[in-house]
Amino acid sequence: MALITEDRLKAVIKSGAHIPCFIITGDDGYLKKMYVDKIAGAVADKNDLFNYSRFNSDCDLQDVYDSAVQLPVMADRKCNILCDYDFEHCAKSDFDRLCLLAEDNSDTAVLIIWFDALQFDAKKSARFKKLVAAAEKSGGIAAEINHRKTPELVKMLSDGAAKRGCRLDSATARYIVESVGDDINTLVCELEKLCFYNPGGIITKQTAELVCAKTVDASVYNLSKSILSLNADSALKLLDDLFFMKIEPITVLYSVSSAYVDMYRVFLCKAAGKTIKDAAEIFGYKGREFVLERAAANLSKLDKKRFSLSFDALVRCDNALKSFGTDPRAALEQLIVRLIYIISKGESVDNA
Predict the structure, then answer these.
(1) 167-198 pLDDT tens trace
(2) Contact 269, 8 (CB under 8 A)
(3) Quick one: DSSP state of residue 26?
(4) 98 CB-near residues (< 8 Å, 6+ apart)
(5) Which of 11, 87, 329, 333 is 20 to 30 Å from the Cα of 119, by its Cα?
(6) Angle at 151 (CA atoms; ends 146, 155), nearest 5 degrees
(7) What phi-psi label fits residue 74: left (phi over 0), alpha (psi between -120 and 50 degrees) or beta?
(8) pLDDT band at 231 (very low <50, low <70, confident <90, very high)
(9) Rounded distance, CA 226 to CA 237, Å?
(10) Which of 203, 143, 150, 213 is CA-nearest to residue 3?
């Protein structure tokens, strides 16, 4: 079984080569849909009733088969899309029929097996491996489309701004990614807003701060980032923003705790001679390796003692937030100060 990457899929589509079967999986819903639309659009118009068919998870595979064997009408090829068919739990006879569909090497039809919301472990699923092998027999391909990393998102925003007649430097683009998050659909929407707000102009960080809607995940991530950067002013300001957004204090605490757990897992794996890829496999970060890569970048600021003291501070804050009469804001402010002091001095502020 060989899953190709986004770059390879892009090259295949650009080449115009006839591929009878595409299997599209991965963790980025926006990108998966974009490539499904590109592949299908190169074969038939979605409004073409004769040559374009889409089947959902509750379909009868016989209908898909009937559509696949029918010749195109006034066109070279027809396109059939099968979305989120639960191959893991269907009857063996239905799975065998699905594999036969994937094996079909007809030059008059293209089958796209698209996993949009259906989740499974591509590495461990025996049925998925068999399905991919069936597609490969016909000259088909399977692509795993995952979240793009920050440098790729930065380039996407800069290039997108240029296409819209605006200028966006890499530093500002990176700030937008950190503020908005890594969801491409959201980033594209925010870019549209920025270019509409400042047509033909230079998009600055100040403009992004004014126009872009900060996501909760991005704000919490930036809170952890400010703590690890020893920037108390920024961390406390971000805490203000989170309280303004009415985010539950316990949610803020658990998110900051998660950042420390991510780092500690990488710390343990490095101590055992393991790689980021190994850590992702051991701790279940499949498709989210970027979280561990981000954690690894901050690992130099912490050692075993600092981790121990930090986890003590996190547990202390957790107990305080669950106690009657505690001021949640004060508890989180104290946590921020404690965590920064631990990183800076290597000891607890209470012992200073």
Answers:
(1) 999 999 988 887 787 788 889 999 999 999 98
(2) no
(3) S
(4) 61, 85, 87, 90, 113, 131
(5) 11
(6) 100
(7) left
(8) very high
(9) 10
(10) 143
Q: Residues 144, 287: contact at Cβ < 8 Å?
A: no
HSE of 311, CA atoms in CB hemisphere, 13 A: 12
For 176, the token pair is 């937008």
Cα end-to-end distance, the chain, whole Å: 58
Single pTM value for the model:
0.63
Distance of CA 46 to the CA centre of its chain: 27
Here the tokens at position 153 are: 């998102």
Strand order of the β-sheet with 21-25 is 3-4, 141-144, 21-25, 109-114, 78-83, 52-55
Q: What is the b/e burial string over 167-192, where b = at least 16 CB atoms within 10 angstroms of the residue's CB?
A: ebeeebbbbbbbbbbbbbebbeebbe
Which residue in 45, 50, 105, 113 sits closest to 81, CA to CA?
113
